[in-house]
Design goal:
- About 40% of the residues are buried.
- The protein has helices spanning about 30-40, 55-65, 75-80, 95-105, 125, 135-140, 145-165, 170-195, 210-215, 235-255, 275-290, 290-300, 310-325, 330-340, 365-385, 390-400, 405-435, 450-470; strands at about 20-25, 40-45, 50-55, 85-90, 105-110, 115-120, 205-210, 225-230, 275, 305-310, 365, 440-445.
- With about 475 residues, the protein is an alpha/beta fold.
- The protein has a four-stranded mixed beta sheet with strand order 9-8-7-10, with helices on both faces.
- The mean pLDDT is about 90.
- Helix 15 (about 365-385) runs antiparallel to helix 17.
- The chain has three domains: about 5-125, CBS-domain, CATH 3.10.580; about 135-320, Beta Polymerase, domain 2 (2-Layer Sandwich); about 335-475, Four Helix Bundle (Hemerythrin (Met), subunit A).
- The radius of gyration is 25 Å and the shape is globular.
């Protein structure tokens, strides 16, 4: 396995299996003796056969010795780090490294589906790998000291994606890499701006990412779509500071190379920065009046995800959306109709139909050709079934589990979606090679016959799926 691909290996294949554990009632002096005997720096704490916490040598130093506590009079439960941060054994190493970076910790407990301890993974395990990796770039992002540093690292991220594309990394893993790096880049930018200019900024808000970024499906050409939700009772001074922060943040984001949203869906704009109660009223308006503009806004917002701040706002908004949709199918019907409206560029006999004139002559716009129909159609079906979180792939599997999609249909849609996303990334990388901004337009003359055949099959699957949507949502009764 190449050094690059090891980051997309399940952590079960890389973690240490010989984990030393102690019960939470164990005296601290016993914990210290165990660590010395095994020459280790941490011990996992068990309760009822499950890992519940961890004690490290730093805990013993800072929480016991420095505080003058008697280690014979205190137990592991008194100083252990809990709740324990864990990762599933079938998750990828890169996900583990992202989690360690986000939580600012150096080790993770690896558990199975039942929560039973299976091993332990440390950041030093990954640091021994080659520096040309997502992990190294993540480390550099964590250590960035200015927006200028982040701008340089964003350029480096594009080069890394080009490199990984050539190593055979699967499409889903590649997109996930882009998403996680984008997340960490934005989080670090927020940290820098808050520390430098807004140290007293209220914590009673959440910065939300929306659309493809909310689903963690953005690629190199994705512009920013974000919003802010805050407590309803913020003072005038708190609101003024939050407004200034949002403008500063979005302008800085544009400054490091993330394009502005052409539709203005950015937290710096007042329409996308509201109190919780105001957001609920806006959502009600969108859901009750499914105009094209409201469908676009609502569909974008439904993929909300908290990137920074209080996650309780996100949960309350999601609950509000699901509750309102239960009694109102009209919005989802129009959303499905919108997805059906983007017809795949196929001729009468299934031949590909590229642009015939203009600067994109001979090209197909991959997002409009099929990706949009899948993501938006699946989103409408998932919301109808009460499935809200997750990527498009997760929603597809959720719909299959609910008996709404057949296994074969699910597999075909996943294959079509993955192939189209791969072609979208390819189109964007071709643009970068030509020294222009990433584009979704793919020249057909860059595909060989096998690839053209796969593209036709993928678009045929999109066309079949749109027919399925017409029947499921009774779109023949909807005038558009």
């Amino acid at each position: 396995m190449s050094v690059e691909n090891i980051f997309f290996t399940p952590v079960s294949q890389l973690c240490h299996r010989d984990v030393v554990t102690c019960e939470q009632e164990a005296p601290l002096v016993e914990i210290a003796a165990t660590m010395r005997a095994h020459n280790i720096s941490s011990v996992v704490i068990h309760a009822d056969g499950k890992p519940v916490g961890m004690v490290t040598d730093r805990d013993l130093r800072n929480k016991v010795v420095a505080e003058g506590l008697n280690p014979r009079e205190h137990q592991a439960r008194d100083i252990m780090n809990s709740p324990l941060v864990t990762i599933r054994e079938d998750d990828y190493l890169f996900e583990a490294l992202y989690l360690m970076g986000r939580r600012r910790i150096h080790r993770l407990c690896v558990v199975d589906a039942e929560g039973t301890l299976r091993g332990i993974l440390t950041d030093s395990d990954a640091l021994r790998l080659q520096s040309r990796s997502p992990q190294q770039l993540m480390k550099e992002i964590e250590e960035a000291e200015s927006p200028e540093d982040l701008k340089t690292l964003r350029d480096k991220m594009e080069r890394l994606v080009v490199h990984l594309t050539g190593t055979g990394v699967a499409t889903t893993d590649l997109v996930q890499t882009v998403a996680l790096l984008n997340d960490r880049l934005l989080i670090r930018l927020i940290e820098l701006i808050r520390a430098a200019r807004y140290p007293d900024l209220t914590d009673r808000f959440a910065f939300l990412v929306l659309g493809s970024e909310g689903r963690r499906e953005q690629t190199l050409a994705t512009d920013q779509d974000n919003a802010i939700v805050h407590a309803d009772d913020l003072s005038a001074d708190e609101l003024d500071q939050l407004r200034a922060f949002s403008v500063d943040l979005i302008d800085s984001l544009i400054g490091i190379g993330v394009p502005a949203c052409t539709g203005g869906i950015m937290a710096k704009n007042e329409d996308w920065r509201r109190g919780l109660g105001a957001w609920k009223k806006v959502l009600d308006k969108w859901l009750q009046t499914p105009t094209p503009a409201n469908i676009l806004s609502g569909s974008m917002f439904f993929d909300l995800r908290t990137l920074h701040g209080d996650e309780r706002f996100e949960q309350e908004l999601k609950t509000h959306i699901i509750n309102r949709l239960r009694g109102n199918s009209l919005f989802l019907v129009h959303s499905a109709a919108n997805a059906v409206g983007f017809k795949p560029p196929l001729g009468l006999f299934g031949q590909l139909k590229p642009e015939r004139s203009g600067p994109n002559r001979g090209c197909i716009e991959i997002k409009k050709a099929g990706i949009f129909a899948i993501t938006e159609g699946i989103k409408a079906m998932a919301l109808q079934a009460g499935i809200q979180d997750g990527r498009t792939r997760d929603r597809l599997l959720g719909l299959q589990k609910a008996g709404i999609l057949e296994p074969g249909q699910t597999a075909n849609l996943i294959a079509a979606f993955d192939f189209l996303v791969r072609l979208r990334l390819r189109a964007q990388l071709l643009s970068l090679d030509q020294g222009v901004s990433p584009s979704n337009y793919l020249p057909l003359d860059r595909l060989n016959r096998i690839e053209e055949g796969r593209l036709r099959l993928a678009l045929e699957e999109v066309k079949n799926f749109q027919g399925f949507l017409r029947g499921r949502f009774h779109l023949h009764q909807v005038s558009r």
